[in-house]
Specification:
Blueprint (H helix, E strand, L loop, with lengths): L2 E9 L5 E8 L4 E5 L6 H16 L7 H11 L6 H22 L3 H4 L8 E9 L2 H14 L4 E5 L28 E3 L2 H19 L5 E4 L6 H11 L6 E3 L9 H6 L6 E3 L10 H5 L5 E2 L8 H13 L4 E4 L7 H13 L5 E3 L11 E2 L3 E3 L2 E3 L9 E2 L1 H5 L10 E3 L5 E2 L2
Parallel strand pairs: 4-5, 4-12, 5-7, 6-17, 7-8, 8-9, 9-10, 10-11, 11-12
Antiparallel strand pairs: 1-2, 2-3, 4-15, 13-16, 14-15, 17-18
Helix pairs in contact: 1-3, 2-3, 3-10, 6-7
The structure holds 2-keto-3-deoxygluconate (KDG) and magnesium ion.
Protein backbone atom coordinates (compact mmCIF):
# COMPACT_ATOMS: atom_id res chain seq x y z
CA UNK A 1 0.00 0.00 0.00
CA UNK A 2 2.05 2.91 -1.35
CA UNK A 3 1.41 6.55 -0.46
CA UNK A 4 0.61 8.57 -3.59
CA UNK A 5 -0.43 11.96 -2.20
CA UNK A 6 -0.23 13.80 1.11
CA UNK A 7 -2.23 17.01 1.27
CA UNK A 8 -2.79 19.47 4.11
CA UNK A 9 -6.37 20.74 4.39
CA UNK A 10 -6.98 23.91 6.43
CA UNK A 11 -10.64 24.67 6.95
CA UNK A 12 -12.71 26.66 9.50
CA UNK A 13 -16.21 25.18 9.86
CA UNK A 14 -17.05 26.69 13.25
CA UNK A 15 -13.34 26.82 14.17
CA UNK A 16 -10.09 26.05 12.38
CA UNK A 17 -8.94 22.48 11.80
CA UNK A 18 -5.79 21.28 10.05
CA UNK A 19 -6.05 17.79 8.55
CA UNK A 20 -3.49 15.65 6.76
CA UNK A 21 -5.13 13.69 3.96
CA UNK A 22 -3.08 10.78 2.57
CA UNK A 23 -4.11 8.72 -0.46
CA UNK A 24 -2.66 5.38 -1.55
CA UNK A 25 -2.18 3.55 -4.83
CA UNK A 26 -5.19 1.40 -3.89
CA UNK A 27 -7.45 4.44 -3.63
CA UNK A 28 -7.75 4.52 0.17
CA UNK A 29 -7.86 7.87 2.00
CA UNK A 30 -6.35 8.22 5.48
CA UNK A 31 -6.87 11.24 7.76
CA UNK A 32 -4.79 12.71 10.59
CA UNK A 33 -5.54 15.69 12.84
CA UNK A 34 -2.85 18.42 12.88
CA UNK A 35 -4.78 21.15 14.70
CA UNK A 36 -2.76 23.26 17.17
CA UNK A 37 -5.01 25.97 18.57
CA UNK A 38 -3.84 29.48 17.61
CA UNK A 39 -0.73 28.17 15.78
CA UNK A 40 -2.51 26.20 13.05
CA UNK A 41 -0.55 27.49 10.07
CA UNK A 42 2.81 26.62 11.66
CA UNK A 43 1.86 22.94 11.68
CA UNK A 44 0.35 23.20 8.19
CA UNK A 45 3.68 24.53 6.93
CA UNK A 46 5.74 21.92 8.84
CA UNK A 47 3.65 19.21 7.23
CA UNK A 48 3.18 20.68 3.77
CA UNK A 49 6.73 22.00 3.29
CA UNK A 50 8.83 19.44 5.14
CA UNK A 51 6.93 16.20 5.74
CA UNK A 52 4.43 15.57 2.93
CA UNK A 53 7.13 15.32 0.23
CA UNK A 54 8.92 12.64 2.29
CA UNK A 55 5.81 10.49 2.51
CA UNK A 56 5.27 9.99 -1.20
CA UNK A 57 6.28 6.47 -2.27
CA UNK A 58 6.51 5.11 1.31
CA UNK A 59 4.67 1.97 2.38
CA UNK A 60 1.62 3.09 4.39
CA UNK A 61 1.90 -0.07 6.52
CA UNK A 62 5.23 1.12 7.95
CA UNK A 63 3.68 3.04 10.85
CA UNK A 64 6.50 2.57 13.39
CA UNK A 65 9.28 3.10 10.87
CA UNK A 66 7.65 6.29 9.57
CA UNK A 67 7.22 7.58 13.15
CA UNK A 68 10.91 6.99 13.93
CA UNK A 69 11.95 8.41 10.55
CA UNK A 70 10.10 11.67 11.19
CA UNK A 71 11.03 11.92 14.88
CA UNK A 72 14.70 11.00 14.77
CA UNK A 73 15.21 12.11 11.19
CA UNK A 74 14.32 15.74 11.83
CA UNK A 75 17.16 15.97 14.39
CA UNK A 76 15.04 18.66 16.17
CA UNK A 77 12.79 16.60 18.42
CA UNK A 78 9.72 17.27 20.54
CA UNK A 79 7.74 20.49 20.82
CA UNK A 80 4.06 21.03 20.04
CA UNK A 81 4.46 21.89 16.34
CA UNK A 82 6.70 18.91 15.57
CA UNK A 83 4.71 16.43 17.63
CA UNK A 84 1.36 17.57 16.23
CA UNK A 85 2.72 17.18 12.69
CA UNK A 86 4.07 13.68 13.41
CA UNK A 87 0.77 12.82 15.09
CA UNK A 88 -1.15 13.64 11.93
CA UNK A 89 1.01 11.28 9.87
CA UNK A 90 0.80 8.52 12.48
CA UNK A 91 -2.99 8.69 12.80
CA UNK A 92 -3.50 8.86 9.02
CA UNK A 93 -1.35 5.73 8.60
CA UNK A 94 -3.25 3.85 11.33
CA UNK A 95 -6.46 4.89 9.57
CA UNK A 96 -5.18 3.44 6.29
CA UNK A 97 -3.86 0.20 7.78
CA UNK A 98 -7.18 -0.43 9.54
CA UNK A 99 -9.20 0.37 6.41
CA UNK A 100 -7.03 -2.02 4.42
CA UNK A 101 -7.69 -4.71 7.03
CA UNK A 102 -11.42 -3.90 6.85
CA UNK A 103 -11.53 -3.36 10.62
CA UNK A 104 -12.34 -0.47 12.94
CA UNK A 105 -8.99 0.77 14.24
CA UNK A 106 -9.58 -0.30 17.84
CA UNK A 107 -9.49 -3.94 16.68
CA UNK A 108 -5.88 -3.48 15.53
CA UNK A 109 -4.97 -1.90 18.87
CA UNK A 110 -5.98 -4.99 20.83
CA UNK A 111 -9.78 -4.96 20.56
CA UNK A 112 -12.39 -3.46 22.86
CA UNK A 113 -11.61 -3.53 26.58
CA UNK A 114 -14.99 -2.02 27.53
CA UNK A 115 -18.48 -1.28 26.18
CA UNK A 116 -17.76 2.42 25.74
CA UNK A 117 -15.78 5.36 27.11
CA UNK A 118 -17.11 7.29 30.09
CA UNK A 119 -17.19 10.92 28.92
CA UNK A 120 -17.23 14.14 30.89
CA UNK A 121 -19.01 17.26 29.72
CA UNK A 122 -18.40 20.90 30.59
CA UNK A 123 -20.61 23.03 32.81
CA UNK A 124 -19.74 26.63 33.58
CA UNK A 125 -21.68 29.48 35.16
CA UNK A 126 -20.93 33.01 36.27
CA UNK A 127 -22.85 32.40 39.50
CA UNK A 128 -24.24 29.33 41.23
CA UNK A 129 -27.77 29.28 39.73
CA UNK A 130 -26.29 29.52 36.22
CA UNK A 131 -23.79 26.77 37.01
CA UNK A 132 -26.46 24.52 38.47
CA UNK A 133 -28.62 25.01 35.37
CA UNK A 134 -25.65 24.18 33.12
CA UNK A 135 -25.00 20.95 35.06
CA UNK A 136 -28.67 19.96 34.77
CA UNK A 137 -28.45 20.58 31.00
CA UNK A 138 -25.41 18.31 30.64
CA UNK A 139 -27.07 15.58 32.70
CA UNK A 140 -30.14 15.81 30.47
CA UNK A 141 -27.86 15.40 27.43
CA UNK A 142 -26.68 12.10 28.92
CA UNK A 143 -23.38 13.04 30.57
CA UNK A 144 -22.54 11.03 33.67
CA UNK A 145 -19.49 13.07 34.71
CA UNK A 146 -19.22 16.87 34.77
CA UNK A 147 -16.40 19.39 34.72
CA UNK A 148 -17.39 22.38 36.84
CA UNK A 149 -16.03 25.88 36.11
CA UNK A 150 -17.27 28.98 37.90
CA UNK A 151 -17.10 32.74 37.72
CA UNK A 152 -15.27 34.55 40.52
CA UNK A 153 -16.47 37.87 41.98
CA UNK A 154 -14.25 40.66 40.71
CA UNK A 155 -12.95 38.78 37.64
CA UNK A 156 -14.81 39.85 34.50
CA UNK A 157 -14.18 36.88 32.16
CA UNK A 158 -12.91 33.47 33.12
CA UNK A 159 -11.74 30.27 31.48
CA UNK A 160 -14.63 27.81 30.98
CA UNK A 161 -17.42 30.27 31.77
CA UNK A 162 -19.70 31.77 29.17
CA UNK A 163 -23.06 33.49 28.87
CA UNK A 164 -25.96 31.10 29.49
CA UNK A 165 -27.08 29.16 26.45
CA UNK A 166 -23.98 29.96 24.34
CA UNK A 167 -21.38 27.31 23.50
CA UNK A 168 -18.00 27.92 25.14
CA UNK A 169 -15.09 28.29 22.71
CA UNK A 170 -11.82 29.55 24.20
CA UNK A 171 -10.26 30.66 20.89
CA UNK A 172 -11.74 33.96 19.70
CA UNK A 173 -11.92 34.96 16.06
CA UNK A 174 -9.89 38.12 16.48
CA UNK A 175 -6.66 39.23 14.80
CA UNK A 176 -4.97 39.53 18.23
CA UNK A 177 -5.59 37.65 21.48
CA UNK A 178 -8.17 39.22 23.80
CA UNK A 179 -6.90 39.97 27.30
CA UNK A 180 -8.55 38.57 30.42
CA UNK A 181 -7.84 39.17 34.10
CA UNK A 182 -6.70 36.80 36.78
CA UNK A 183 -6.50 36.99 40.57
CA UNK A 184 -5.38 33.78 42.36
CA UNK A 185 -6.39 34.97 45.83
CA UNK A 186 -9.95 35.78 44.72
CA UNK A 187 -10.19 32.40 42.98
CA UNK A 188 -8.88 30.48 46.00
CA UNK A 189 -11.37 32.25 48.27
CA UNK A 190 -14.35 31.54 46.04
CA UNK A 191 -14.01 28.09 44.46
CA UNK A 192 -14.22 25.80 47.51
CA UNK A 193 -17.67 27.22 48.33
CA UNK A 194 -18.82 26.63 44.75
CA UNK A 195 -17.69 23.00 44.74
CA UNK A 196 -19.25 22.45 48.16
CA UNK A 197 -22.61 23.78 46.89
CA UNK A 198 -22.45 21.65 43.72
CA UNK A 199 -21.58 18.49 45.64
CA UNK A 200 -24.41 19.22 48.05
CA UNK A 201 -26.96 19.77 45.27
CA UNK A 202 -25.98 16.84 43.04
CA UNK A 203 -25.14 14.25 45.70
CA UNK A 204 -22.09 12.11 46.45
CA UNK A 205 -22.08 9.84 43.37
CA UNK A 206 -21.68 12.24 40.42
CA UNK A 207 -18.04 12.46 39.25
CA UNK A 208 -17.03 16.15 39.37
CA UNK A 209 -13.90 17.54 37.72
CA UNK A 210 -12.29 20.98 37.79
CA UNK A 211 -9.63 22.63 35.58
CA UNK A 212 -7.31 25.23 37.15
CA UNK A 213 -5.73 25.80 33.73
CA UNK A 214 -2.11 26.17 34.93
CA UNK A 215 -2.70 29.22 37.13
CA UNK A 216 -1.50 28.45 40.66
CA UNK A 217 1.89 28.23 42.33
CA UNK A 218 2.79 24.85 43.86
CA UNK A 219 1.99 25.96 47.41
CA UNK A 220 -1.33 27.54 46.31
CA UNK A 221 -2.23 24.36 44.44
CA UNK A 222 -1.35 22.23 47.47
CA UNK A 223 -3.63 24.31 49.68
CA UNK A 224 -6.40 24.32 47.07
CA UNK A 225 -6.27 20.54 46.58
CA UNK A 226 -6.45 20.01 50.31
CA UNK A 227 -9.40 22.41 50.68
CA UNK A 228 -11.35 20.46 48.03
CA UNK A 229 -10.90 17.03 49.61
CA UNK A 230 -14.34 17.01 51.31
CA UNK A 231 -16.02 17.40 47.86
CA UNK A 232 -14.39 14.26 46.43
CA UNK A 233 -13.27 15.52 43.01
CA UNK A 234 -12.68 12.96 40.26
CA UNK A 235 -9.68 15.15 39.41
CA UNK A 236 -8.10 18.54 39.73
CA UNK A 237 -6.58 19.43 36.36
CA UNK A 238 -3.46 21.46 35.52
CA UNK A 239 -3.21 22.94 39.01
CA UNK A 240 0.25 24.34 38.15
CA UNK A 241 1.99 25.03 34.81
CA UNK A 242 2.46 21.52 33.38
CA UNK A 243 6.06 21.84 32.22
CA UNK A 244 7.35 21.97 35.81
CA UNK A 245 7.04 18.27 36.64
CA UNK A 246 8.80 18.66 40.00
CA UNK A 247 6.15 21.15 41.22
CA UNK A 248 3.73 18.26 41.63
CA UNK A 249 5.95 16.75 44.37
CA UNK A 250 4.96 19.56 46.69
CA UNK A 251 1.27 19.45 45.70
CA UNK A 252 1.13 15.69 46.09
CA UNK A 253 2.72 15.71 49.53
CA UNK A 254 -0.13 17.89 50.84
CA UNK A 255 -3.29 16.57 49.20
CA UNK A 256 -5.01 13.34 48.18
CA UNK A 257 -7.23 15.09 45.62
CA UNK A 258 -6.49 13.17 42.36
CA UNK A 259 -4.41 15.15 39.87
CA UNK A 260 -4.61 15.28 36.07
CA UNK A 261 -2.06 16.96 33.82
CA UNK A 262 -0.70 16.92 30.31
CA UNK A 263 -2.86 18.55 27.63
CA UNK A 264 0.11 20.81 26.74
CA UNK A 265 2.77 18.09 27.10
CA UNK A 266 3.88 16.40 23.91
CA UNK A 267 6.43 13.68 24.65
CA UNK A 268 6.99 10.71 26.93
CA UNK A 269 9.98 12.63 28.29
CA UNK A 270 7.58 15.26 29.66
CA UNK A 271 6.07 12.51 31.80
CA UNK A 272 9.11 10.68 33.16
CA UNK A 273 9.07 12.32 36.58
CA UNK A 274 5.29 12.61 36.74
CA UNK A 275 4.77 8.91 36.05
CA UNK A 276 7.93 7.50 37.63
CA UNK A 277 7.31 9.26 40.93
CA UNK A 278 3.54 8.67 40.88
CA UNK A 279 2.85 12.42 40.95
CA UNK A 280 -0.34 12.30 38.84
CA UNK A 281 -3.39 10.08 38.51
CA UNK A 282 -4.54 10.89 34.97
CA UNK A 283 -2.73 11.58 31.68
CA UNK A 284 -4.40 14.41 29.75
CA UNK A 285 -2.56 14.03 26.44
CA UNK A 286 -4.48 13.43 23.23
CA UNK A 287 -3.05 11.57 20.24
CA UNK A 288 -3.22 14.87 18.30
CA UNK A 289 -0.63 16.77 20.36
CA UNK A 290 1.59 13.90 21.49
CA UNK A 291 2.89 12.28 18.30
CA UNK A 292 -0.19 10.18 17.55
CA UNK A 293 -1.46 6.80 18.65
CA UNK A 294 1.98 5.19 18.48
CA UNK A 295 3.54 7.66 20.92
CA UNK A 296 0.59 8.10 23.28
CA UNK A 297 0.22 4.37 23.64
CA UNK A 298 3.81 4.23 24.92
CA UNK A 299 3.07 6.93 27.50
CA UNK A 300 -0.09 5.13 28.61
CA UNK A 301 1.67 1.76 28.85
CA UNK A 302 4.29 3.35 31.10
CA UNK A 303 1.49 4.98 33.12
CA UNK A 304 -0.27 1.62 33.49
CA UNK A 305 2.70 0.27 35.47
CA UNK A 306 1.86 2.91 38.09
CA UNK A 307 -1.95 2.55 38.01
CA UNK A 308 -2.18 5.92 36.29
CA UNK A 309 -5.09 6.16 33.87
CA UNK A 310 -5.96 8.05 30.69
CA UNK A 311 -8.04 11.22 30.65
CA UNK A 312 -7.52 12.31 27.04
CA UNK A 313 -7.97 15.93 26.05
CA UNK A 314 -11.12 16.35 23.96
CA UNK A 315 -11.86 20.07 23.49
CA UNK A 316 -13.23 21.48 20.24
CA UNK A 317 -9.67 22.15 19.08
CA UNK A 318 -9.09 18.40 18.80
CA UNK A 319 -10.80 17.81 15.44
CA UNK A 320 -13.35 15.06 14.76
CA UNK A 321 -10.41 13.10 13.30
CA UNK A 322 -8.39 13.55 16.51
CA UNK A 323 -11.41 12.63 18.62
CA UNK A 324 -11.89 9.42 16.66
CA UNK A 325 -8.23 8.51 17.22
CA UNK A 326 -8.64 9.10 20.97
CA UNK A 327 -11.78 6.95 21.07
CA UNK A 328 -10.22 3.97 19.27
CA UNK A 329 -7.19 4.08 21.56
CA UNK A 330 -9.28 4.63 24.69
CA UNK A 331 -11.55 1.70 23.86
CA UNK A 332 -8.58 -0.64 23.47
CA UNK A 333 -6.24 0.20 26.37
CA UNK A 334 -6.69 -1.37 29.79
CA UNK A 335 -5.90 1.76 31.82
CA UNK A 336 -8.63 3.98 30.40
CA UNK A 337 -9.94 6.53 32.91
CA UNK A 338 -12.29 9.05 31.33
CA UNK A 339 -12.62 10.96 28.03
CA UNK A 340 -13.27 14.70 27.72
CA UNK A 341 -16.08 15.38 25.25
CA UNK A 342 -16.79 18.92 24.09
CA UNK A 343 -19.02 18.44 21.05
CA UNK A 344 -18.13 20.44 17.94
CA UNK A 345 -20.38 23.11 16.47
CA UNK A 346 -23.11 21.67 14.22
CA UNK A 347 -21.48 23.29 11.15
CA UNK A 348 -18.34 21.15 11.67
CA UNK A 349 -20.39 18.14 10.49
CA UNK A 350 -20.68 19.78 7.02
CA UNK A 351 -16.99 18.91 6.54
CA UNK A 352 -16.31 15.95 8.84
CA UNK A 353 -18.67 12.99 8.84
CA UNK A 354 -18.04 10.75 11.85
CA UNK A 355 -19.11 7.30 13.02
CA UNK A 356 -18.69 7.81 16.75
CA UNK A 357 -21.69 7.74 19.07
CA UNK A 358 -22.60 9.05 22.52
CA UNK A 359 -25.28 7.28 24.54
CA UNK A 360 -25.94 6.86 28.26
CA UNK A 361 -22.78 8.73 29.14
CA UNK A 362 -20.53 6.53 26.99
CA UNK A 363 -18.71 7.33 23.75
CA UNK A 364 -17.97 4.65 21.17
CA UNK A 365 -15.86 5.03 17.99
CA UNK A 366 -18.24 2.98 15.83
CA UNK A 367 -17.62 0.00 13.59
CA UNK A 368 -16.62 1.61 10.30
CA UNK A 369 -13.21 0.39 9.01
CA UNK A 370 -10.35 2.69 10.01
CA UNK A 371 -11.00 5.78 12.11
CA UNK A 372 -14.52 6.08 10.75
CA UNK A 373 -14.22 9.75 9.71
CA UNK A 374 -14.73 11.17 6.21
CA UNK A 375 -13.62 14.61 5.06
CA UNK A 376 -15.67 16.37 2.36
CA UNK A 377 -13.08 18.36 0.40
CA UNK A 378 -15.62 20.47 -1.50
CA UNK A 379 -17.36 21.40 1.76
CA UNK A 380 -13.99 22.21 3.39
CA UNK A 381 -13.33 24.80 0.69
CA UNK A 382 -16.49 26.64 1.66
CA UNK A 383 -14.96 27.44 5.08
CA UNK A 384 -11.67 29.26 4.44
CA UNK A 385 -9.12 29.76 7.22
CA UNK A 386 -10.04 32.32 9.85
CA UNK A 387 -7.46 33.36 12.42
CA UNK A 388 -8.41 32.84 16.07
CA UNK A 389 -6.38 33.12 19.24
CA UNK A 390 -6.58 31.94 22.82
CA UNK A 391 -6.80 34.78 25.37
CA UNK A 392 -3.88 36.16 27.37
CA UNK A 393 -4.19 36.68 31.15
CA UNK A 394 -3.06 39.69 33.17
CA UNK A 395 -2.94 40.18 36.93
CA UNK A 396 -4.67 43.25 38.42
CA UNK A 397 -1.37 45.21 38.16
CA UNK A 398 -0.98 44.34 34.48
CA UNK A 399 1.59 41.53 34.78
CA UNK A 400 1.12 38.74 32.21
CA UNK A 401 0.03 35.50 33.91
CA UNK A 402 -0.48 31.93 32.68
CA UNK A 403 -3.76 31.53 30.81
O1 LIG B 1 -6.41 24.98 23.06
C1 LIG B 1 -6.57 25.11 24.43
C2 LIG B 1 -7.78 24.34 24.89
O2 LIG B 1 -7.78 23.06 24.36
C3 LIG B 1 -7.82 24.26 26.39
O3 LIG B 1 -8.01 25.55 26.91
C4 LIG B 1 -8.97 23.35 26.82
O4 LIG B 1 -8.08 23.20 29.03
C5 LIG B 1 -8.79 22.76 28.16
C6 LIG B 1 -9.54 21.53 28.45
O5 LIG B 1 -9.34 20.99 29.53
O6 LIG B 1 -10.29 21.11 27.59
MG1 LIG C 1 -7.64 21.69 30.49
Amino acid sequence: MIIETAEVVVTSPGRTFVTLRITTDEGLVGLGDATLNGRELAVASYLGDHVAPLLIGRDAHAVEDTWQFLHRGAYWRRGPVTMTAIAAVDVALWDLVAQRAGLPLYQLLGGASRRGLLAYGHAGGRELPELSEAIHRRLAEGFRAIRVQSGVPGIAALYGVTDPGTAYEPARRTARPVEEQWDSRAYLRHLPGVLEAVRHEFGPALPLLHDVHHRLTPIEAARFGRSLEPYDLFWLEDCTPAENQEALRLVRSHTVTPLAIGEVLNSVHDYRTLIGEQLVDFIRSSPTHTGGITALRRILDLAALHQIRSGMHGPTDVSPVGMAAALHLGLAIHNFGIQEYMPHAAVTADVFETSFTFAEGLLHPGERPGLGVRLDLAAAEKYPYQPAYLPVNRLPDGTVHDW
